[in-house]
Amino acid sequence: DIQMTQSPSSLSASVGDRVTITCRASQSISNYLNWYQQKSGKAPKLLVYTASNLQSGVPSRFSGSGYGTDFTLTISSLQPEDFATYYCQQSYGSPRVTFGQGTRLEI
Amino acid sequence: EVQLLESGGGLVQPGGSLRLSCGASGFSFSSYAMSWVRQAPGKGLEWVSGISGSAGNIYYADSVKGRFTVSRENSKNTLYLQMNSLRVEDTAEYYCAKDRGPLVNSKGGYFQQWGQGTLVTVSS
């Protein structure tokens, strides 16, 4: 299975900060990389698909980039509602998809 | 509006069985593959099983193969997960998730919508 490694595992930031989360795949996955946001006690929510496409309704302060093995999720200006855990997920190793271990973003 | 509603979770002893259901509404259910994804307490997300829109293709994670069975009843807009020989390590929140198309986890696929989850606890 393709292994996904996120860094950092946790991150402290403040409202208004620019934040970048990194996801690395154990092999090349082209651009088949998705990002999800999960708030405490809630289901995950799709933010970005195929590396850089923003899901409908997601604020434009979120952006994704990358190709091959290295990917990033950037939040340009943190808002209070952005404090959550973020997961990357590869969809190259179809049908067995795998997730990163998560990055907890906290104040 | 797409809605997914899981049910059937609860407390079960090791070696026991449980059947989860996921009721869907707001979209053409048979046109989309569906998956089960679980999350152990305080841990990350793990894909468990997926079934294509027509139910013609079914896949499992190695951790549950031979013990779990996924199925769907398109006439009732419902997805199921039959869980047998449950282990302590199966304890988790179980989410159903809608794929972007009829095939399970196709290249470039993603989980568009998720249910709210149902908690399965395996303990003696």
Give a structural overview.
- The complex is a heterodimer of chains A (107) and B (124).
- Chain A has 107 residues and is an all-beta fold.
- Chain A has strands spanning 4-7, 10-12, 19-25, 33-38, 45-49, 53-54, 62-67, 70-75, 85-90, 98-99, 103-106.
- In chain A, the strands form two sheets. In chain A, strands 2, 4, 5, 6, 9, 10 and 11 form a seven-stranded mixed β-sheet that branches. In chain A, strands 1-3-8-7 form a four-stranded antiparallel β-sheet, with no helix packed on it.
- Chain A is globular and about 35 Å long.
- With 124 residues, chain B is an all-beta fold.
- Chain B starts with a strand and ends with a strand.
- Chain A binds chain B through residues 30-32, 34, 36, 42-46, 49-50, 55, 87, 89, 91-92, 94-102, and chain B through 37, 44-47, 50, 57, 59, 61, 95, 100, 104-117.
Summarize the structure.
The complex is a heterodimer of chains A (107) and B (124). Chain A has no helices and eleven strands.
For this structure, the quaternary state is heterodimer
Tally the helices of chain A: 0
Fraction of residues in β-strands of chain B: over 45%
Largest beta sheet of chain B, briefly?
A: 7 strands, mixed
Written as H for each helix and E for each strand, in order along the chain, the element string of chain B is EEEEEEEEEEE
- Weakly predicted, low-confidence segments of chain A: none
